[in-house]
Amino acid sequence: MMNTTWSSCFTATAVAVGAFLAGCGSSTPTSSGTSGSGQSCQTTFDCKSPLACIDNVCGGSTVTPGTDAGTTTKMDSGVTPVMDSGVKPGKDSGTAPPPAVDSGFAGASALGGRCTQTSDCATGLECIPSEDNFGGICDLASFGLQPTGTVCGGECKTATDCYELPVGNPYGRTCADILANQLSGTFTTCTGEAAGDPPTSNACFYYKTYCQPAAAVKVWTCTANNKCEYSGACTVAAVNDLGGCPSLTRTGGAVLNGDVCDLTTKKCGTGPAVAPPCTSAASCNGMAVADVPTETCNTTTDCACYVNSGCYIKCATSLDCEVGYSCSTTGITAGLCIVDPSCSSNADCAAADDSVVAVCSKTTGTCVIPCTNDHDCSPGSGATATLRDEGLEFNGQVCDTTTKVCTSVVGNCTTDAQCTGGSVNTFCVPQVITPASPAVISAITTN
């Protein structure tokens, strides 16, 4: 029996038939489309002849109106009738299911692949925004790094570590070289030797300073900050000469306390500015001011003694101190101008760090960035070229899981064996955070 829908279209005149077919649509293409079997289509005209558009997929063959194909045709949006074979794509119907939609995020599950949400990424990855406005990129959810609190660069752990010849010294790589080539095989050559008689007096100085860790009189100490400090006595102003002060530590760095001999105290340092140690404010009477060598503490209350290291002009209020310093009223710094913390409020940090999430740490007095994950601290891991090309590079900061603030891991270490990147081996030691300015200074005025 003829389908009633098609029969109604053919009851009109020939002219009307032509007009009606244009409106009703035809399953017989008037020109060949480009879509092959199993490819998507909107109308039969999209398919290559003799295929028909069935459930938006090219397949089967066209049906000529007026024949009973044993199937039911249906209208396609009121334009083109399409065949309903009663079989859905994906079944064994000779057709294929519609092709997957290309989202433009090929390989999104891989590290560096495109994504729109974290569920697009493989396990352990996170979808983070991309700077090129093409959605997101899969990056490591965690960078796998944590601050150790220790860094390479320690010159020593004990005083004995300081007894090594500085690299590049002009007298030999080893103490044996100095003895053999400069001192005729024995240090007794230096007996009676005076400064200013190179090269022997200089060779004697290097051997005496760096080659005798078992000597009765120790000339090096290792500070609490793991730096080599020269503690031997000096008698002449010459540097790197017998009786004088050394200019270099074993690592080739400058000696912590300086290489100028204070002929009054017989100590190496930076000259008269290095005052003898004090024990109390009263002991400062008559002593030189540590950071103002032209002035002297004239009374027992004129100065304050700081940690048995030196005397500083005492302050009464913060008005007595330089800008950036305040007068301390408690602890071992009482009566001294101490450096102000870098912030006092979160607003200070927002302005200083150009970030409204920055906060002022009550513990350190510095601005910090709170965090919950590594991406709060660094643009990205930089683990692939794609991530780096889009500005998602690692900046050395991670989220410290203990403090929950962004912290640098640059230069961190866990063992001494990791500290071999420079010209000499160094030690893995606790990181010391020092202020940009001296922690303690003298008052600039008093009332």
Could you explain how this protein is built, in words?
This protein is of the alpha+beta class. Among the domains are: 4-84, no CATH class; 346-440, no CATH class. Helices cover 11% and strands 17% of the residues. The protein is built from six helices and 24 strands. The strands form eleven sheets. A three-stranded antiparallel beta sheet has the order 5-7-6, with no helix packed on it. α3 packs antiparallel against α4 (200-210). The termini are far apart. The model is unreliable at 1-31, 62-107 and 271-275 (pLDDT under 50).
Key descriptive features of the protein:
three-stranded antiparallel β-sheet; single chain; alpha+beta; disordered N terminus; 447 residues; 11% helix
Q: Which outline best applies?
A: elongated
Order the strands across the largest sheet as they lie in space.
5-7-6
Number of strands: 24
Class of secondary structure makeup: alpha+beta
**Largest sheet, if any?**
3 strands, antiparallel
Write the layout of secondary structure elements.
Elements: H1 4-9, H2 14-24, E1 52-54, E2 57-59, E3 72-74, E4 82-84, E5 114-115, E6 125-129, E7 136-140, E8 150-154, H3 175-182, H4 200-210, E9 220-222, E10 228-230, E11 260-262, E12 267-269, E13 288-289, E14 292-296, E15 303-306, E16 310-313, E17 325-327, E18 337-339, H5 346-353, E19 359-360, E20 367-368, H6 385-389, E21 397-399, E22 406-408, E23 427-430, E24 440-441
Antiparallel strand pairs: 1-2, 3-4, 5-7, 6-7, 8-23, 9-10, 11-12, 13-14, 15-16, 17-18, 18-24, 19-20, 21-22
